[in-house]
Specification:
With about 80 residues, the chain is mainly α.
Length: about 80
């Protein structure tokens, strides 16, 4: 099957697709536009803009004193 045949078939399918399918295709297109540089701990892809936003938020929390020192964390883990 040639590229033009595939495009034609995809166009026809999209014209008849339900909202769920269209949203799924749209998400795939968005992921394709963004360069995925890693994944969250839940396995979700993350691009550079989202990672920068997360790093800035984490840095802000640390500056505000919202963190656990390594020693305190080790003590807490012993109580699990």
């Amino acid at each position: 099957m040639t590229s033009s045949q595939i495009k034609k078939e995809i166009h026809q399918y999209i014209d008849q697709a339900d909202e769920r399918f269209l949203k799924m295709v749209y998400r795939i297109m968005q992921y394709d536009k963004e360069e995925i540089i890693g994944y969250t701990s839940q396995g979700q892809p993350i691009d550079s803009a989202a990672l920068k936003k997360r790093v800035k938020a984490a840095s802000k929390r640390v500056k505000q004193g919202h963190y656990i020192a390594q020693e305190d964390l080790e003590k807490e883990v012993q109580n699990w």
